[in-house]
């Protein structure tokens, strides 16, 4: 599949039925377009099986609840719809994007309780998120924008509005020849990249930021479990920016990123070392079991 995302052949599941890809449209007064009342998931299907599918669907419901709406389809219905969409598009290895949002209706202001909630699922082929960085190591900028306090925004929701500063940060990074950007949180601690969690290695131990102001990714949790099963000590803690100089290796985790080593963050360089490459290979093996 190639071309602009609004001009492709295929099927998209929308509000209970499969429709033609190009017909999957919404009205200009859709509430989500104006007020970001939307949540989504990013998932990968490997050899016909969506990795951690149930966890993603449950998180979609949780995210919706956190921004004050209910998805009108059950977890089981969404699970079935994802597989139906993959089958309709003839895909066994694909990226899966469920998205739920407040649509147009009787309300067109900040409040929109009377507007219908919609759900759609699209699937497409998507290769390595960071290109050849899996072998060479990604290059990251340092973003000027910070992840907000959980008292300011629901940080554990995978909500569209929370990605505005991520988009801006990634655009700025790409303009400098980088793949992504490291973001700090509102206190100045190391947080995450624009759409992936971060891990660091020092003296054989792994350090990863505490996810108290950003999303605790499903891939992040999976990788922590994998490392501990390998007997590697994983320390979840607040990490100060000046500590970056002392870390030996670094990698990113996320459904799109999978496990991608990092070679550089700003002026700090990291080895694409044995532990990063091993956990990346182990993750690749796990998702294809």
| CATH class label of the largest domain | Alpha Beta
> How much helix, percentage-wise, in residues?
25-40%
User: H/E series, N to C?
Assistant: EEHEEEHHEEHEHEEEEHEEEEH
- How many strand units? 16
User: What proportion strand?
Assistant: 25-35%
Q: What is the CA-based Rg, rounded?
A: 19 Å
What is the 3D form? globular
Mean pLDDT: 96
The structural domain count equals: 2
Low-confidence stretches: none
Q: Under the CATH scheme, which architecture of the largest domain would be assigned?
A: Alpha-Beta Barrel
So, the CATH homologous superfamily of the largest domain?
D-amino Acid Aminotransferase, subunit A, domain 2
Count of runs of 4 or more consecutive helical residues = 7
| CATH topology call of the largest domain | D-amino Acid Aminotransferase, Chain A, domain 2
Distance between the termini: 25 Å
The largest pleated sheet is described as: 9 strands, mixed
Structural class: alpha+beta
Give an account of the 3D structure.
The chain has seven helices and 16 strands. Strands 8, 9, 10, 11, 12, 13, 14, 15 and 16 form a nine-stranded mixed sheet that branches. Strands 1, 2, 3, 4, 5, 6 and 7 form a seven-stranded antiparallel sheet that branches. It is an alpha+beta fold. Strand 9 and strand 10 form a beta hairpin. It folds into two domains: 11-124, Aminotransferase class 4, branched-chain amino acid transferase, N-terminal domain (D-amino Acid Aminotransferase, Chain A, domain 1); 133-287, D-amino Acid Aminotransferase, Chain A, domain 2, CATH 3.20.10.10.
Concise summary:
The chain has helices at 31-35, 53-66, 75-88, 133-136, 164-175, 218-229, 274-287, and strands at residues 11-14, 17-20, 38-40, 43-46, 49-50, 94-102, 117-124, 138-147, 180-185, 190-193, 197-202, 205-209, 234-237, 249-254, 258-265, 268-269.
């Amino acid at each position: 599949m190639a071309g602009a995302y609004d001009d492709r052949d295929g099927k998209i599941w929308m509000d209970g039925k499969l429709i033609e890809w190009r017909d999957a449209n919404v009205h200009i007064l859709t509430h989500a377009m104006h007020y970001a009342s939307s949540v989504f998931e990013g998932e990968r299907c490997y050899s016909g099986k969506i990795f951690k599918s149930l966890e993603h669907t449950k998180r979609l419901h949780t995210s919706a609840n956190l921004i004050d709406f209910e998805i009108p389809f059950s977890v089981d219905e969404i699970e079935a719809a994802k597989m139906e969409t993959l089958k309709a598009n003839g895909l066994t290895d694909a990226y899966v994007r469920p998205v739920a949002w407040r649509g147009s209706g009787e309300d067109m202001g900040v409040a929109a309780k009377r507007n219908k909630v919609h759900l759609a699922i699209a699937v497409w082929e998507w290769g390595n998120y960071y290109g050849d960085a899996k072998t060479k190591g990604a290059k990251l900028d340092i973003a000027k924008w910070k992840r907000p306090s959980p008292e300011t925004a629901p940080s554990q929701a995978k909500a569209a509005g929370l990605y505005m500063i991520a988009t801006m940060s990634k655009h700025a990074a790409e303009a400098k020849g980088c793949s992504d950007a490291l973001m700090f949180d509102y206190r100045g601690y190391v947080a995450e990249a624009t759409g992936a969690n971060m891990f660091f290695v020092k003296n054989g131990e792994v350090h990863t930021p505490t996810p108290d102001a950003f999303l605790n990714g499903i891939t992040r949790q999976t990788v922590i479990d994998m490392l501990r099963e390998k007997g590697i000590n994983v320390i979840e803690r607040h990490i100060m920016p000046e500590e970056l100089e002392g870390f030996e290796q670094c990698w990113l985790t996320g459904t799109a990123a999978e496990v991608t080593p990092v070679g550089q963050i700003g002026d700090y360089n990291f080895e694409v070392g044995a532990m990063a490459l091993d956990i990346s290979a182990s993750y690749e093996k796990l998702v294809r079991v």
